[in-house]
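[audit] Reproducing an earlier prediction to check determinism. Same input, same settings, fresh worker. If the tokens differ from the archived copy the diff job will pick it up downstream; this log only records the rerun itself.
[audit] input (99 residues):
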Amino acid sequence: MDSFVLLQKAGLAVGLFFVGQVLSWAGYVTPRGTTTPITQPDSALTAIRLMIGPVPAVVLAAGILLVYLFPITKAGTKDAGGVGEAQSTGCRIKSLGHL
């Protein structure tokens, strides 16, 4: 479980760095202690629109495709600690009702 959290944090850090670099490249104007609304250039607005819509959709689709293509077999899950064995014998894990 700890490795999942580490990978999740690393992925978020890389993603935020990438978005920051794209916004900087696109000419995003950072507000600095002013209450006056700042007009962003069209390139920055386009970058923001891409970063909150099409780019995450493409990354999600690529992830789904990779999971679909990943070869998972019963033999492979048995080698990974008997998970496949429990599934093939019909063992069920009781859920904790209070959670």
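[audit] rerun output stored. Observation attached for the diff report: Residues 1-28+39-70 form one domain.
[audit] end
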